């Protein structure tokens, strides 16, 4: 079973200056380096005590030496090996630096005295977290969290300093980049994005969303009431107009009774 050793990060920036350290003296260690940054790999304690050592990447020799003498270093344009403390520094890391590295040690008789391997992963750091919120129809809030760049990002959420619980979430988990908060929640919402290289976060003050379904019902009720009132006013107007027409006709019959009599004959 491969051992996974925690990586101690020494940040000097989110970009090309990220520097990581990994103890590769245990067999099967997983190490992580920042794209464009520097990784310090502890391969042995003191190379001056080792008669011969050979370090390979995917079967190709990277480093070959005897005690304090470096015979071969195929990465010498951007790497340094320090025999006195057994560390190998790789600068300006690129994706193709990822791979499996194997170290073999020999004594003065050419006998192998040890072999150990490490897996190196190169990741782009995460940066520039953006939070976007949206109120939904029934008073819930949808919040999305995204970061610029970054390999294998992992997400976590807190509200007022406390990790969100299932009772506060309608959908999603605290490990996804999109969550839906239940009704009547407010406070300081923080989304943190991290990978093995870097960690960044951003916060958003959220307030209670109005339940638009209730507002919609209220508006429908208002529309219905206004409609009924309008219909009532219309029929009242029609009735008043009809009465005025009848009154006018009656007045004419009273004023000119002979004309109406002839017309009726």
Describe the structure.
The chain is of the alpha+beta class and 265 residues long. The chain has three domains: 116 residues, Immunoglobulin-like, CATH 2.60.40; 84 residues, Immunoglobulin-like (Sandwich), CATH 2.60.40; 52 residues. Helix content is 20%, strand content 43%. It has two helices and 19 strands. The protein has a six-stranded mixed beta sheet, with no helix packed on it. Strand 16 and strand 17 form a beta hairpin. The radius of gyration is 40 Å and the shape is rod-shaped. 21% of the residues are buried. The N terminus is likely disordered.
Summary keywords:
2 helices, 5-stranded mixed β-sheet, Immunoglobulin-like, 265 residues, 6-stranded mixed β-sheet, 3 domains, alpha+beta, single chain
- The number of domains: 3
Q: According to CATH, what is the topology of the largest domain?
A: Immunoglobulin-like
Corresponding CATH superfamily of the largest domain = Immunoglobulins
Q: Tell how many strands the DSSP assignment holds.
A: 19
Share in helix: 10-25%
* Outline: rod-shaped
What layout of secondary structure does this protein have?
Blueprint: E1 8-10, E2 19-23, E3 29-34, E4 38-42, E5 52-57, E6 60-66, E7 69-73, E8 79-82, E9 87-90, E10 99-106, E11 112-123, E12 127-135, E13 141-148, E14 154-159, E15 162-163, E16 169-171, E17 178-181, E18 187-194, E19 199-206, H1 212-255, H2 257-264
Parallel strand pairs: 2-4, 3-11
Antiparallel strand pairs: 1-2, 4-9, 5-6, 5-10, 6-7, 8-9, 10-11, 12-13, 13-17, 14-15, 14-18, 16-17, 18-19
């Amino acid at each position: 079973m491969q051992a996974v050793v925690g990586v101690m990060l020494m940040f000097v920036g989110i970009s090309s200056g990220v520097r990581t350290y990994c103890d590769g003296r245990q067999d099967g260690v997983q190490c992580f380096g920042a794209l464009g940054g520097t990784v310090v790999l502890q391969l042995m304690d003191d190379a001056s005590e080792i008669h011969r050592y050979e370090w390979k990447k995917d079967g190709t020799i990277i480093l070959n030496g005897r005690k304090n003498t470096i015979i071969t270093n195929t990465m010498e344009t951007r790497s340094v090996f320090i025999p006195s403390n057994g560390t190998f520094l790789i600068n300006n890391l690129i994706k193709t630096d990822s791979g499996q590295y194997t170290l073999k040690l020999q004594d003065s008789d050419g006998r192998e005295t040890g072999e150990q391997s490490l897996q190196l992963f190169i990741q782009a750091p995460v940066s520039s977290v953006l939070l976007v919120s949206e109120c939904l129809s029934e008073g819930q809030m949808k919040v999305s969290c995204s970061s610029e760049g970054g390999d294998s990002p992992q997400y976590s959420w807190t509200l007022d300093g406390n990790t969100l619980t299932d009772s506060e979430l309608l959908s999603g988990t605290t490990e996804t980049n999109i969550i839906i908060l239940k009704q009547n929640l407010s406070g300081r919402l923080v989304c943190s994005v991290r990978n093995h290289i870097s960690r960044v976060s951003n916060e958003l003050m959220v307030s209670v969303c109005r339940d638009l379904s209730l507002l919609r019902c209220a508006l429908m009720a208002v529309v219905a009431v206004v409609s009924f009132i309008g219909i009532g006013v219309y029929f009242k107007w029609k009735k008043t107009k009809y009465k005025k027409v009848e009154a006018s006709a009656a007045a004419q019959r009273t004023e000119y009774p002979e004309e109406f009599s002839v017309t009726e004959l």
